[in-house]
Amino acid sequence: MNSPNTKPNVICLMGPTASGKTGLAVELVQRYPFQIVSVDSAQIYQQMNVGTGKPSQDILDIAPHRLIDFVDPAVAYSASQFRADAITAIGDIVDQGDTPILVGGTMLYFRVLRDGLADMPHADPGVRAEIEALADSQGWEEVHRQLAAVDPDSAARIHPNDPQRLQRALEVFRVSGSTMTALHAQTQAEQLAQLPYNLHFFAIQPADRSVLHRQIETRFQQMLREGLLDEVKLLHSRGDLNHQLPSIKSVGYRQVWQYLEGELDYDGMVEKSIIATRQLAKRQLTWLRSWQSLLSLSDSSAQSVNSVLKYMDSISI
């Protein structure tokens, strides 16, 4: 598919939760030599199957997924770890002569894979103390003003009432002499040049938000019927997990955990889970609207399958 002098192609299939990404990917695997790599910050966890929408064993038999079900829920898993694991998985698939297709809704993971992670200077206690003293004497508004004078891009992104991010952005400049914005841009350019693959981004972007909302509610009700409560009860009974862990903060798990702790009644748990999932979908769609060089798919229909396959034909060498 690729000549020795070209970078291998990698397809990235993004979209909001409940939009049909997995179904589309499975269809594609049956029509083209793709292998799936999951890009989902919840499906990485073991013992969390129903609430994460993890593919069933029947689906995995047809279309195996990498990077699912390999991290214990008590363990925090970082975006940098994902990038390293994804690059390893991509390399293995390419070595087998197939094309990787990365599928999921964790937009941060996609961005980190594409852009890399900026190599920021370590914290400097002395500089931090100076900034804190400035804030104590003149207020965080003055810190924001000084940041705007040296790094207007960061100042535009950071609210004057966000002291932690203000302090870090000004600290980075005072320690390194470079702005956080410049360091991010430099790292992105370097890591893009080093990434030995061509990433091609597709996204399912439903035209009718109300349809997506109905799909979200239907899917959550289905999760309850499939045993979501029992799944979270088992996690709750382990004794080494708590509501502050990234795994338990996942949408649906957080609300069921609150129900088990007596903080929500059953109806409140269902309502808040659906609302939280809709909010997640909204954030995902916001990410997609600003994504560069994105090829949009309206749904997970046969038309979308054909659109991806035609694109693969157009980039094949």
Structural descriptors:
55% helix, six-stranded parallel β-sheet, alpha/beta, 317 residues, Histone, subunit A, Rossmann fold, 9% strand, 2 domains
Q: Which helices and strands occur, and which strands form pairs?
A:
Layout: E1 9-14, H1 21-29, E2 34-38, H2 57-62, E3 65-66, H3 79-95, E4 99-103, H4 107-115, H5 125-138, H6 140-150, H7 152-157, H8 163-176, H9 180-194, E5 198-204, H10 209-225, H11 228-237, H12 253-260, H13 266-289, E6 294-297, H14 302-315
Helix pairs in contact: 1-14, 3-4, 5-6, 5-8, 6-8, 10-13, 11-12, 12-13
Short recap of the structure:
With 317 residues, the chain is of the alpha/beta class. Helix content is 55%, strand content 9%.
CATH class of the largest domain: Alpha Beta
Beta-strand content: 5-15%
Span between N and C termini? Answer: 5 Å
Radius of gyration of CA atoms, rounded to a whole number: 22 Å
Summed up, the domain count is: 2
Which structural category do the helix and sheet elements fall into? alpha/beta
CATH topology of the largest domain: Rossmann fold
The average pLDDT value, as a whole number, equals 92
Could you say what the CATH architecture of the largest domain is?
Answer: 3-Layer(aba) Sandwich
